[in-house]
Write a structure and sequence with these properties.
- Helices cover about 10% and strands about 30% of the residues.
- With about 220 residues, it is mainly beta.
């Protein structure tokens, strides 16, 4: 039974919901490209979208049967690179490639093996400062990070990867005038929602804690 609406609470017009069974639950998260180091010292590059951050820690969802998981379990340095919307085709090209050879049975229907995924996707490796895997030069926001803990998912098909960001690189064009903060009005990440790519959309508001907002948010009601 739904909870009663408290007295005096604002009532809004609610949609009529129905029960559905979508095949995926990616409601809209940033796409990112994760670079890891292969056993022979070459880089592997893979697209992903399961992501959240708290402080300097990232939590990434990574499939266990890919080369990315195999690499980061042994060599914990990674880069996490955030493409903007103009790079969606490079992300899509990477989505059909795997660094695993031979290709795992579970991936055989949709993936092919590719040794040099930077070249195959048309992207450029850029040397990192503190970790061995390269950054993606075309991405305007890049994190160097070190994996601190991995936890196997309940169904055994993915890892929850906790990684500490050790350095942030940004295109100066997306910074605020102080040069200290990412200006969210200048940064337009590629958003992945239900297997489609989108630009972020129009700004509708901000939190009082924002370091780049022009003033405190103006909120209706109490």
């Amino acid at each position: 039974m739904p909870a009663p609406i408290p007295p005096g609470a604002a009532r809004v017009s609610a949609p009529a919901h129905v029960v559905v069974e979508p095949s995926v639950l990616y409601v809209g998260t940033p796409a990112y490209l994760i670079a890891t180091e292969n056993p022979d010292g070459t880089p592997n590059l893979a697209p992903a979208s399961s992501y959240w951050a708290l402080g300097r820690m990232l939590v990434l969802g990574i499939e266990v049967d890919g080369q990315t998981a195999a690499n980061l379990l042994v060599r914990p340095g990674i880069t996490v690179n955030f493409p903007s919307s103009d790079l969606w085709q490079a992300v899509a090209r990477l989505g059909a490639l795997t660094g695993r050879d031979p290709v795992p049975d579970a991936k055989a229907a949709r993936y092919r093996y590719e040794k040099d995924k930077f070249e195959a996707s048309g992207l450029t490796p850029e040397a990192s400062d503190l970790v061995r895997p390269p950054r993606v030069a075309e991405c305007r926001l890049q994190f160097e990070a070190t994996v601190r803990r991995t936890t196997e998912g309940l169904d055994g098909g993915y890892l929850m990867v906790e990684a500490e960001v050790v350095r942030v690189h940004a295109d100066p064009a997306i910074l605020d005038p102080t040069g200290e903060h990412i200006d969210p009005t200048r940064w337009n990440p590629l958003v992945y929602a239900f297997r489609h790519f989108f630009e972020r959309g129009v700004e509708v508001g901000w939190l009082a804690s924002s370091p780049t907002a022009p003033h405190a948010p103006v909120l209706d009601g109490p």
